[in-house]
Amino acid sequence: MRSYVAEARRRVGPRRLRIRPVIERLAREHPDATIALRFRNDLELLVSVMLSAQTTDVTVNRVTEKLFRTYQRPEDYLAVPLEELEQDLKPTGTFRQKARNLRAAMAMLLEEFDGEVPLRIDELVRLPGVGRKTANVVASERGATQGVVVDTHVRRLSQRLGFTRHEDPVKIERDLRRLVPREDWARLPHLLIWHGRRVCLARRPCCERCVVNDLCPSSRV
Ligand code: SF4
């Protein structure tokens, strides 16, 4: 098994030489690869990304379409009883925890950031319920990319493509930051996410119709 993996790695060559062609081919294959969440401002972006944990972007968009009509400022999330906010978030799952985190995050925005969503990762991750992945998404979508978003698709594809051997998202991000040209930190996660949804599926990767199968040590063709 070990020799098979080593042989596959030798066949495709070092990752430093593969990263650019992989990005270019995926960009041609998925020209529409952008964030699927719908939002109109920084606050809506933050809330959408916080709600997207453990659920689909489609569900979040369905919930926020109604939510954002009622909740337009940080104060609005604090003005209703907690139970009411929980009910508004219910379809997104883990709604009690999400409601508590949202209220605590909104309170901190008001107390420490004049009601504005900060741009810096180290400030974003101080908000309750905001981890590094959420912070990276929020910063990147506002043109202030400071890291590489690592979600379940980015982790799986980075491993299959031989860009990392780690499981821990923090270590995977560290590998990607070293490997990926900085100008591609924002778009690579979108490309991997869409390739993961359409081609490199978790259970059955469709290697035969994958545009990077000659560059992938995990290819089955
Ligand atoms: S060749 Fe297969 S495993 Fe590799 S990225 Fe493409 S679909 Fe995924």
Describe the structure.
With 221 residues, the chain is mainly alpha-helical. 58% of the residues lie in helices and 0% in strands. The chain is built from twelve helices and no strands. The protein has helices spanning 2-12, 15-29, 42-51, 57-70, 74-79, 82-89, 95-112, 121-124, 132-141, 152-160, 169-179, 187-198. Helix 2 (15-29) crosses helix 12 (187-198). The radius of gyration is 19 Å and the shape is elongated. The mean pLDDT is 96. The site of iron/sulfur cluster has 14 residues, from helix 10.
Keywords:
single chain, 221 residues, binds iron/sulfur cluster
Mean pLDDT: 96
Ranges with pLDDT <50 over ≥5 residues? none
Number of helices in the DSSP assignment: 12
Largest sheet, if any?
A: none
Q: Looking at the structure, what is the overall shape?
A: elongated
Bound molecules: iron/sulfur cluster
How many β-strand stretches? Answer: 0
Beta-strand content estimate? under 5%
**Strand and helix order:** HHHHHHHHHHHH
What is Rg?
19 Å
Helix content: 55-70%
Structural class: mainly alpha
Cα distance, first to last residue? 17 Å
